[in-house]
Structures are given as structure tokens and as C-alpha cells.
Write a sequence for this structure.
């Protein structure tokens, strides 16, 4: 039963992390930062601040020349998920060996 | 879009070389096919590296090569965000389904659903869903091959659709899964070479300092880009349900798309299934990030070139225009050959699963007395007939090749992805629940596609009670995926709970899929998972209808 729970928990955590890193993360970095740290968007203030197009302006926050959220998006959805997948595989390899033993 | 005006000889020669090598590989691989198992799942003998490479070419269809570039020109940041989700979805496929499906020993997705739930009706229903999603997926890819032929020879796209379709039908029919696997491996290598190098040269010509590594090589051009297209990197403050729809469509859609899942039935064991996915996602990520660079370069080129006035319908040609203008004809020939390889690999995988679905899952189930030898002969014929039928269907292709594919992801997620995931992770799931979820979920997706994409209706005007008015905004139609997937989950869980549990021999399959030698009723049978799924689904449906004062139209 212990191994079964380990399998379920490791899979759940990996799935949540992959779901967050594969596209969500960078969007939430932008949206949450604007909402809670820059304190800009209130329902009334959003359109006034961003204009009708609702595009977020981010300046002076770059990595290798790319805006931070864009860099995070492409790196997490590529290298990030590959590493997460490899970790999950290693844990499952161990578990499989224990099951066979 | 005007053709080049003359036959592009070098590109034509390289494309023909790719086609000839593909057919030769199939003829060579034919010697390994001795029975039905060899034909459909390559004798379950494929290793992790070979399978990983084959999966890459399946994933990187023409939609990636030319469709994504067009989408980035249209949608800039949000297009990249969409595709990032597709890359990550492979790991979702791995941790939720891949090794477990391999242990189940089925030939196809449809066989898995039928055997796991003990229902012939579900097999027939899943064959129908499979045919719908495969045809949608194929139509987009065959149009891509038509685009390549149009560019090469100036002949109408329809000629490319027919010629390319016939070639791929020929080599799939000849070589079966062995031929398809070795061809896909070859095509991945061609594709990587033919994408990375021309894009690097394009970036160098545009003046990017990191041109030698296209995925991260264009950072120093960002300030210029922002001055041309101020919103290029700006994340849109859009209702987050759009991102959630993309996530649901890509993560569960890839599990439901049978030509991806079928690759896991071909590997030696569950471990090889796992590691082949890791190899695949690394290479898919490398190519996708390179295509983001291509999209960036395309927008940059359009902004800096006088007289560059393309209609949106011509954006699908932008990769070739870009490479020809900035890298030269030699590199263009490589890019064209890579496109041909990309198109062929995906079409071949889809044709094989459609043939398998018709002969193995439909005819074989209705006439179980037919022996394997006759089924094998029928498979050759079915594959050929399916190929010709799909070519005929594709003569009226969708306007944007990637849009048709995103719809097929949504329908596959609701109709096939949900039954597969719940069948692996919740023993209590039964045939009644799956039947209800599959029918309602895939119908929502299919009706959405027919009304919005095929009939051209405005998403907010479609007759979806209560929810239609929320389908507005950029890519508002994609929110239909949220409805399809959540209703599929809710109905499957609720109906399974309200009806008798499946017999123990069916529940035992779940333990076996997870590698357990013994049976324990408590494993994968708790209430935590179904309750969590219900709560999340109800929350998502509510979330879709709220916060519109914070995220206005």
C-alpha cells in the first residue's frame, strides 16, 4: 500500500507541476504580479490603465534579452517539463524494481 | 498567394528523394511483418530511442513547420502560449497513460476502451470518435502537403493533396507499423536538420547575435521588435479560462489522439514507453522553440521589408518566403524537403490507426471467426481505401491548418482522453459512465466545430444554452473545449457512481496496468479522485461564467 500511495502522490505532484509550467506559469506571473504587487488592475482600473486592448506592458524585466514571462514560458515548457518527466521516470523505475522484487 | 513562377528544381529533387527513401524503407521493413501484431504494433519490439524519435515526427507535423509560424504572425504571444501547452502535454501523456497502456497489451485505443470496460458498444463508439478526430487532423496536414506542392511547382494545392496522399498511402499499406516507425525515425532526423539550419541562417541574416542557437538566439532583436509590434511579447489580460481550455485540450487531447497512443503499444515494455516520451519531449521542445524563433523572424521580416503585404490566408507560406529571401535557394530546398517529411510522418501514423480501427476494432469484433491472416490481407485493402477516402475529403481543406487540429484535440480529449485516464486511475469507472461521457463530450466538441468552424457562425450565437454568450474574445471558440471535457468528466464520474460497479475481472486490469502482481480492491478505488474531479469541473464551469467584469470583452 505504501508503494501505491507513493506512485499516486508522485504522479499527482508531477502532473500539477507540468500543468503549471506548460503554459500557465508565465501567464500567472504576469497577471498575479500586476494584480497583487503592482496593484494596478481593479475591475474599474483595468481598461483605464491598459486601454481597450488589455495588453500588459512589462519593461526592464528581461533574461537574455527576452521579457521574463516569455523566457519562463519557453524554458519551463521545454527544459522544465523534460526534467520533471525524467524525475518521474526515475521514481517509477525504482518503484517497478520494488514491485518485481 | 502567387506561386514562384517557375519549377523549383532543387526543392523538387530533394522532396522526391525523401519520398523515394520513405517508400524504400517501407519495402525493406515489409520483411519483418509476419502477422497482425507485426503489422499494427511492430511486434512490440521498438526501443525507447527509436520510439522517441518516431513520436517526434508524429508530433511535428506540417502544422508545426508552417502552421505555427502562421499562427504566431496572427496571434504573437498567445500563439506561443498555446503551443507551449502542447509541448508540455507529452509529459502529461506519459505520467497519466503511456506506461499503463503498454502493460495493458491492447493493439489500439479503441481496443483498450472496449476491453477495460467490457463493452462492444464502446468499441464501436470509440471507432467513430477516432475516425472524426483523425479526419480533422488529416485534412489539416494534407492541406500542408498541398501548400508545399503549390510552392514547388505552382500547381494547385489539390494536386499536392492527391499526390502526397497517394504516396503516403502506398508506403503505409506496404510497410505497416515497422515501415511507419522506421520512416518516422528517418523523417525526424530530416526534419531536425531541415528546420534548425535554415532558421539559424535566417537569424544570422537578420542580425541576431545568437543565431547559432535559434531557440534563444534572437533576444537582442527584441527592442526592435517592440518598436515595430508593441504587443509582440505582451501577455494579454484575458479571461484565464482560455488558458485552461488550451490546457484541457492539449493534455487530455494528446491522450485521446489514437495515433500518439498507438506508439506506446509498439515498445518493448513500460520502462521504454516512459523514457521514449522524455526523449520525445526534449526534441519536440527544441523544434517548437525554434519555430517560435521562425515566427519572430517572420514578423520582423514583414515589418522591415517594404511592399510586404500578405493576406492572412498566405501566412502558411511565410516559412518558405522567409527562407528563400534570407537564406537562399539551397536552404529553401532543405526546408521544403523537411516539410514533406513532416507531412508524411503524421499522415502515415493517422492512416495506420484508421485502418487498424476499421479492420481490427470494427470488422474483427463483428466477425471474430476471421483468422489473423485474412485480417492482415484486409488491413492492406482497408488502409488503401481509407487513404483514398481521406484524400477525397481533404479536397475542401480548412482555411488555417492549425485550427482544424485544435478542434480535433478538443474532441479527442472529451471522447477518448477522459475514458482512458479514468480507466487507468479509477477502478469504479464503468461502461455506462464512459458511454454517457463519451457521447455528450464528443458531441459538444463536434457540434462546436460544425457550427463555428465549418458553418462559420459567430461563437456567441451558437445554440449552446447558457454558455454560448461567454464564447467571445480572441480564440473564444476554444472555450468549447472546457465544456466538452468537463461534461465528459462529470457524466463519466456521476453515472459510474450511480450504476453498478464493473466486475472484478475488469477492475483487476487496473492493478495489472500499474504493474502489481497481486490484486487489492482498495488500490485506485478511493473517493478522493472522483470527488476532486467533480469539484474542479464544477468550479471550471462556474469560472467560465464569472469575472467578466475583471476581464472585459
Amino acid at each position: 500500500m505504501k508503494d501505491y500511495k507513493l506512485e499516486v502522490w508522485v504522479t499527482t505532484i508531477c502532473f500539477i507541476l507540468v500543468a503549471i509550467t506548460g503554459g500557465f506559469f508565465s501567464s500567472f506571473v504576469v497577471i498575479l504580479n500586476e494584480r497583487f504587487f503592482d496593484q494596478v488592475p481593479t475591475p474599474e482600473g483595468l481598461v483605464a490603465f491598459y486601454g481597450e486592448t488589455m495588453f500588459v506592458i512589462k519593461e526592464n524585466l528581461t533574461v537574455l534579452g527576452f521579457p521574463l514571462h516569455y523566457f519562463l514560458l519557453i524554458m519551463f515548457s521545454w527544459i522544465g517539463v523534460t526534467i520533471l518527466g525524467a524525475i518521474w521516470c526515475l521514481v517509477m523505475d525504482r518503484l517497478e524494481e520494488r514491485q518485481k522484487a | 498567394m502567387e506561386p514562384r513562377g517557375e519549377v523549383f528544381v532543387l526543392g523538387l529533387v530533394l522532396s522526391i528523394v525523401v519520398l523515394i527513401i520513405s517508400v524504400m524503407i517501407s519495402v525493406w521493413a515489409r520483411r519483418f511483418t509476419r502477422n497482425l501484431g507485426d503489422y499494427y504494433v511492430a511486434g512490440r519490439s521498438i526501443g525507447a530511442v527509436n520510439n522517441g524519435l518516431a513520436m517526434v515526427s508524429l508530433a511535428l507535423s506540417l502544422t508545426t513547420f508552417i502552421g505555427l509560424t502562421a499562427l504566431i504572425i496572427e496571434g504573437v504571444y498567445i500563439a506561443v502560449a498555446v503551443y507551449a501547452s502542447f509541448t508540455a502535454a507529452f509529459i502529461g501523456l506519459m505520467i497519466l497513460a503511456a506506461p499503463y497502456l503498454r502493460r495493458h497489451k491492447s493493439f489500439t485505443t479503441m481496443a483498450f476502451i472496449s476491453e477495460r470496460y467490457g463493452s462492444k458498444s464502446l468499441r464501436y463508439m470509440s471507432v467513430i470518435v477516432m475516425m472524426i478526430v483523425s479526419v480533422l487532423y488529416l485534412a489539416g496536414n494534407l492541406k500542408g502537403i498541398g501548400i508545399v506542392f503549390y510552392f514547388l511547382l505552382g500547381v494547385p494545392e489539390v494536386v499536392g493533396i492527391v499526390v502526397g496522399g497517394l504516396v503516403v498511402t502506398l508506403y503505409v499499406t506496404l510497410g505497416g507499423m515497422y515501415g511507419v516507425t522506421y520512416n518516422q525515425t528517418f523523417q525526424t532526423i530530416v526534419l531536425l536538420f531541415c528546420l534548425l539550419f535554415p532558421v539559424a541562417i535566417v537569424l544570422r541574416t537578420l542580425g541576431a547575435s545568437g543565431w547559432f542557437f535559434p531557440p534563444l538566439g534572437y533576444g537582442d532583436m527584441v527592442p526592435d521588435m517592440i518598436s515595430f509590434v508593441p504587443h509582440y511579447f505582451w501577455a494579454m489580460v484575458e479571461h484565464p479560462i482560455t488558458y485552461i481550455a488550451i490546457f484541457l485540450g492539449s493534455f487530455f487531447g494528446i491522450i485521446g489522439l489514437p495515433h500518439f497512443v498507438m506508439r506506446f503499444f509498439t515498445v518493448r515494455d513500460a520502462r521504454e514507453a516512459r523514457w521514449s516520451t522524455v526523449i520525445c519531449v526534449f526534441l519536440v521542445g527544441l523544434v517548437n522553440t525554434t519555430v517560435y524563433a521562425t515566427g519572430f523572424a517572420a514578423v520582423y521580416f514583414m515589418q522591415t521589408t517594404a511592399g510586404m503585404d500578405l493576406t492572412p490566408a498566405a501566412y502558411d507560406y511565410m516559412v518558405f518566403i522567409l527562407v528563400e529571401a534570407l537564406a537562399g535557394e539551397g536552404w529553401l530546398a532543405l526546408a521544403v524537403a523537411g516539410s514533406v517529411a513532416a507531412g508524411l510522418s503524421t499522415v502515415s501514423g493517422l492512416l495506420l490507426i484508421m485502418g487498424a480501427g476499421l479492420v481490427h476494432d470494427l470488422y474483427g469484433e463483428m466477425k471474430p471467426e476471421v483468422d489473423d491472416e485474412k485480417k492482415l490481407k484486409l488491413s492492406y485493402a482497408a488502409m488503401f481505401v481509407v487513404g483514398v477516402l481521406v484524400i477525397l475529403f481533404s479536397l475542401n481543406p480548412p482555411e488555417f491548418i492549425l485550427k482544424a487540429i485544435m478542434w480535433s484535440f478538443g474532441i479527442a480529449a472529451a471522447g477518448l482522453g477522459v475514458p482512458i485516464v479514468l480507466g487507468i486511475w479509477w477502478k469504479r469507472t464503468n461502461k455506462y459512465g464512459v458511454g454517457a461521457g463519451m457521447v455528450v463530450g464528443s458531441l459538444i466538441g463536434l457540434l462546436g466545430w460544425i457550427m463555428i468552424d465549418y458553418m462559420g457562425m459567430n461563437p456567441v450565437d451558437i445554440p449552446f444554452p447558457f454558455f454560448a454568450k461567454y464564447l467571445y474574445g480572441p480564440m473564444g471558440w476554444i472555450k468549447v473545449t472546457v465544456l466538452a471535457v468537463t461534461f465528459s468528466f462529470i457524466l463519466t464520474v456521476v453515472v459510474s457512481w450511480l450504476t453498478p460497479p464493473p466486475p472484478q475481472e475488469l477492475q483487476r486490469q487496473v492493478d495489472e496496468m500499474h504493474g502489481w502482481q497481486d490484486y487489492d480492491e482498495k488500490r485506485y478505488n478511493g473517493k478522493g479522485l472522483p470527488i476532486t474531479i467533480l469539484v474542479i469541473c464544477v468550479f471550471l464551469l462556474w469560472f467560465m461564467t464569472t469575472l467578466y467584469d475583471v476581464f472585459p470583452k
Summary: The CA atoms of residues 30 and 69 of chain A lie 7 Å apart.
